[in-house]
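Internal ticket - ligand job 459, magnesium ion:
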Amino acid sequence: LWTQVLERLQIQLSRPTFETWIKTAVAEQLDDNCLVIRTPNPFARNWLQKYYIKTIAEVVQEVVGHPIDIHITIAQGDDATTDNPDMFWPLPSQANLSDAPPEPQAVASTSSSNGARSDLNSKYVFSRLVVGSNNRMAHAASLAVAESPGREFNPLFLCGGVGLGKTHLMQAIGHYRLEICSTSRIVYVSTEQFTNDLITAIRKDSRQSFQERYRAVDVLLVDDIQFIEGKEYTQEEFFHTFNTLHETGKQVVLASDRPPNQIPRLQERLCSRFSMGLIADIQPPDLETRMAILQKKAEYENMRLPREVIEYIASSYTNNIRELEGALIRAVAYISISGLPMTVENISPVLNPPVEKVEASPEAVILAIAETFDVSVDDLKGSSRRREISVARQIGMYLMRHHTDLSLPKIGEEFGGKDHTTVMYSCDKIAQLKENDPSMAQTLRQLGDRINHASQTRK
Ligand code: ADP
Ligand code: MG
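stdout (structure tokens):
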């Protein structure tokens, strides 16, 4: 029965939707009264529940002959992002080095009917994107937007650090939209380009053609919108462009390295418009996802790499996928030129891992915590159990563990003589929160940056 359900769903749903949401699910039970679908993670469950339950119910009814109850559950255990414990590599062939990233420049220019150009990089498609817990929501939202632009999430605001795939995702929306509907008018621009176009239009006194270009589109993708900061005139114009599109049900997608409310000198009215759809953030990928990204990249380039090498590179670059890819290419180039075997030892000289953590003093950690959480150093070292203070203290212990060489008992001492088991408990707890709560992960990252920065400038 489930096979029949799947077959029908495959017809009803788009390919990426099916692949992403349905294929990863398992029918745990299917009989006359009840269907239990097991999904790999809570996110998939919510997503199915929210967007596809109706379609599934209809299909099941067709197959079974009458409506039945549908339950969606979550598999026990971890995320199913990378379910291939051992990796297979395609046959070796000469590595394709001419095609070196980090900045792929192959630009496929697609001109749409009204002459609006959409400069999309042909590599930035959904199929080349690895989905992990770090970008699952942004990916799902992007798919949804490509499938039904102007509906659910308008605007879609993608935000995340440099090199985490914002541009890739945005352009994937464009490609996929064109695949679904080839007459769609897609415009992808950087904010800089938008500004330049506007300036040119003013100079040539051709505001109208500017407006035609940007207001007669089905999907407007504007990258690095944080650069609109302080540009009053561009903001003014963009405000009207945005409104025109939004009112006519056209899709707007924006990418930024930070959320709207953290863009300085952004008009309040723009900020509120940017926030009215969905803000989907992209976090740095975890180790498994980084390995999967390298693996995928290697497959595309027809390179064969030992697992240790993948793991080594993946653990050296943690928060910028562009750098991660760059390191892979450098390693492969070096090996092919030197003729050495591909081993961790041989490639390590050409990988210069970015300084990930700077050795910090315990004081620097405590100070960063006190300032960030607005609690006093005395409180951190004291025994208050007030929630804000105890959370700040736990985060402090966790960060001290990461940024210094101090032992658990020594960390305890730094926090006013706490027991080492308390320190251990705090570190575990924060580590767990970091895994499960994106806002905690972000807080830790920001604090880490702050501590790094403070410690670096002191040197
Ligand atoms: P951003 O715009 O956020 O700075 P990009 O979209 O330019 O980042 O991505 C940087 C590089 O990393 C690109 O080559 C992109 O293809 C690659 N990349 C980013 N995210 C992923 C991912 N999830 N899977 C595979 N490759 C990725
Ligand atoms: Mg970008």
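Auto-summary: Confidence is low (pLDDT under 50) at residues 78-117. Residues 101, 104, 129-130, 135, 160, 162-168, 293, 321-322, 325 surround adenosine-5'-diphosphate (ligand 1) (CB under 6 Å).
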